[in-house]
Structures are given as C-alpha cells and as structure tokens.
Amino acid sequence: MQALRAVAAPFPCYRPRQPQDPTLYAVVRDNLETLYGAVDEGAVTIALPAFVKKELEGYLDCGVLCRGFARLKCESCGERRLVAFSCKGRGFCPSCLGRRMASTAANLVEHVLPPSPLRQWVLTVPYPWRKRLAYDGELLGALTRIFVSTVLRFYAERMKKDGAPNGQSGAVVVVQRTSSDLKLNPHLHVLFLDGAYRELGDEAVFRELPRLSTREVGEVLDRAVQRMTRFVRRRERSGEADASYLDDDAGTEDAAGLAALAASAASGRTPPAGPEWRRKRGPLPPLVPQALAFDKPLCARLDGFTLHAATRAGALDALGREALCKYVLRPAVAQERVTRGPDGLVRITLKKPFSDGTVAVDLDPLSLLCRLAAAVPPPRFHTVRYAGVLAPASKMRPRIVPKPPATPANDLDPRAQPVRGGSRYRPWAELLKRCFSIDVLRCPSCDGRLRLVALLTDLREVRRFLRGIGEPTEPPARQPARGPPYWQSRVLRRSAHDDDHVA
Fold first, then answer.
1. Is the dihedral of CA 72, 74, 77, 78 positive or negative?
2. Which of 178-182, 237-241, 350-354, 468-472 has the weakest average pLDDT?
3. Beta bridge pairs of residue 84
4. 187, 332 Cβ separation under 8 angstroms
5. Which pLDDT score, from 0 to 100, does residue 247 have?
6. Helical residues (DSSP H) of 268-350, grouped into ranges
7. Which residue has the higher pLDDT, 391 or 429?
8. Contact predicate 73/79, CB 8 Å
C-alpha cells in the first residue's frame, strides 16, 4: 500500500490543503474550550446554542483525514490519493462557504439568470436594527420583501416611462450577516435584472434600463425606508414584535443569551465580541449629519440606511456576471486575512480601508470567537431567495431561464448523463477546475485519471488505514480551558480584575 505523499507537480496540479495551518484554525482550536468555560461560569454573558457549537466544532474537523475521507486511485499507475471530508458549515468556514459560493454562482449563471444585464443593489440597515434582524427571520424576511418589491416597482414604473409598459423584473437576494471586520451586520446583496421583461405573444422580450441616476437611487431608498418604518411600527403596535424567532429551537434562556451576543457583535465595542483596536492611515474625518445624502454616484444614505447600486455586469459579460454572483455569495472571512497581532491579539486585515482610514482591527481571541458565533445563521434561516420573474411560482420564469445544456456540463466524467433539469449538485473536482483550472482527477505521476475507490466513514476503519500509512489518527488536540480572567488582551484582563475587585 502506498503512503499518502505531497504532490510535487507544478500548477495547475492539486495540492491538498492543510486545515490546521491557518491562524483562524489555531485561534478556534486554542480558545474554544476557554470560551465554553467562560460561558458556563457566567464570565461571558452570552448563549451558545447547539447549532452554534456544532458549527464551531465542525470547523475543527473540516478537512481532517481522521474524520473520514474518500480514496482515489489512478487507473494507470495505481497512485492513491486521500481527500478529507468537509464540515458543510453555513456560518464562517472559508473552505465550505467557498465551495457553496462557487457552486451556487455556477448554478445561477447556467440555470437561473437569463442573458440580461445585472445590477447589484446593496442595502444596509441602522445599528439598532441589526441585533434584532440577526435572529428574527420573520422580520428580516418581511423587510426584504418590502425592499425588493420597492425596487421591482421602480423598474416597472421607469420602464413604463420609457415606452415599455407592463414590464416585470426579477431578483436574486443574498443575505450577508457580517461586515468585513466580522461585526454582526445583516444586510442585503440583491442582483436585479437591470430592466424588465414584457410578454409579446408567446415570447418574453427584455428591455434594458437605459440609465440609472443617483437621484433615482435616493428616491428608491426614501420609499423603501418609509415602507419599512411603517411596517415595523404596525408590528410593534400589534404585539408581534414580542415573538422570538428562536423560542422553539433554543429556549428562552438561549434566546436572551443570543440577544446579548448579537448586541455585542453588532457594536464591536463591548465584551465579549469587542473591544477592537483599529489600525488607521489617517485622522478621522468629521461627521456631518444629513437627512438624505449622496456620498458617491448611485449611492445614498438616509436615517442610518445606505443603498448602493453602482455595480453592474452586462448581458454579454459572462465572466463579470459569474464574478458578481460570487461576490454576493462570498464567505464571511478569508482565512489569509486573519493573522497574529500584538500582545496575543488576532488581527483581521480589511480588503478595503474603512472611510475613517481603518485598514485592520485587532481583537482578543475570545472576541473573535464570539463574532464567529454570531455569524452562524439559525436553522431554517434562508440566505438566498428569489423574487419577481425569477421566483419559483412566476409564470414567466420557464420562458426566460437558460435551457439545460444538451451535453454534460461536467467534462471530467465523459460517462456522465446529460443535465435534464435546473440547478444540480456540482462535484468538488468540477468546481476546482471551473474556478482555478485545476484538474484534481489528473494523476501527478503519469497524467492518468483518478477514480473513486471507496468512502471511509467508520472511524475505526479510518484509524486503521491512517495508522498503516503513518498519518495522524486523531485530530489536533484542543487547548484546555484557561482560568479567569480568560482574556488574552491586557486591557480586558485589567477590566475583569477591576470588576472582581469591586465585587
């Protein structure tokens, strides 16, 4: 039996990832038990329901061979390769969410989005609303429908003025839960068909929006804010606002703890999800309060809401359309942006600087784990939705969505059957070839083809196999829980010590 060995072939050969190497993995591994202990002792007044613990612990098993793997074998030379299973997380796992991003974007481009231009509309909500929307799926769904219907109505009215009455547009809605610094920030990335479809006989004809002005973006935001504000007021008066989204799943104690976690993760200024130390390039600019302001072209802000509509991909720009889909579906954090900071802190480097000049934030490890916990969506909390002519019940949808290809989309397996329906499961090998031009099934020794031999899921068989090839049979050990005051940062340690002294 041949031992598992590193692939030495140059790009684009596949190189198995080492999940335990990134800083993010080490931070979760070394501080998870400490977080559990701090929560149990009441030092961190939050709740970690079962779905959050499952996500955190599953991330530590993602890509680890001793938790199960697939065996591949070359049909020509007998070369063997082991591929570890993933955790299939929905919250923050960069690998699993990266796979979900690539798969969903490919299905959107090939099976859902018609050949028409796309425009991204991004809506963010005020800080006081964020902690509530993080776990109130019913309220978030209602506000999402209000915003999407407002924009769809704008498209219909605008196209009517341009000589295309009775037009209908469509949208794909993606709910992102965090900002780039992992603060809790439920916001909407919506891809709208930048125009409208009209029924002419048996055909659906698309008419492109000629031009979008910044004033029109402000009008859409003003109308949407008014409608959402009225809805929230009516909901509060009727008493529906007292209902908790997690009462049935987490219990009243966990619901209260999740509310505390959401409040801390949304502000990022108080424990346990803060404080943060910002690294800036320049002085803070003065803040000028305004009612309706336009900071950039096709961008508006009002009463804490912001709306951006400046990103667009043309109908013939296939790469741009798929890149836009990947952007709205991107993972919460890229693991290469999480590094070690000073004094035991963890640094999150921002992809783009904030408006105040911040280029990175430093957090205590426990604060980072709390932000990761807040990034996990509750069960049955849908993050991708469809509206307008792209909605499942739309009568126009079958006439505008792309038709299934006549040949298999997966050229890695010539024996694959033709695609007969819409969106489908995409194998891991197909996604890597599509995204990175890496042929995972090519043998690094003889350029032959690798085929699946077996799936090992029984842990006893997994340990026996790995022991025979000299691989670790146990996952990386978690560090034991630290004692009070739990925090790594000196500021938080002093704060906890002062609190104990006062008590």
1. positive
2. 237-241
3. 69
4. no
5. 47
6. 318-328
7. 391
8. yes
